[in-house]
Structure formats: C-alpha cells, structure tokens
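Checklist before submission:
- one chain only
- standard amino acids only
- sequence pasted in full

Submission:
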Amino acid sequence: MNISKSSNPVLKDRVFAKDYTSNSDVMTVNGTINKTALMLLLVIAAAVFTWNKFLMQ
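Returned file contents:
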C-alpha cells in the first residue's frame, strides 16, 4: 500500500516531512532514582494506611 495515496490526513507526506525535536531536558539517572524512590514511598505509605485500616476494624 502506498502511504502517499491514502486519504487519511495522518498519513500525508507533509506529516512525515516534519522535524520533531524535543526541547525538554534529558532526565538524569539521579532524577530517575529520586522519582522512583518518591513513588515507592507513596505506594508504601498508601499500603500501610490501608493495612492499618483493615486491621483496626
């Protein structure tokens, strides 16, 4: 199937001709570790809260 013959606007040639670049900063390993630790802490806190609610019936 020839993509350029499609009537779908997403598959037009001008869409593929664009240069998509990211202007955002790259995430560092330390940033990844910090965000992972924060998310893990939040999940553990929620689990402890739920567990205590279950035990305190």
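Reviewer check: The helical segments are 13-17, 29-55.
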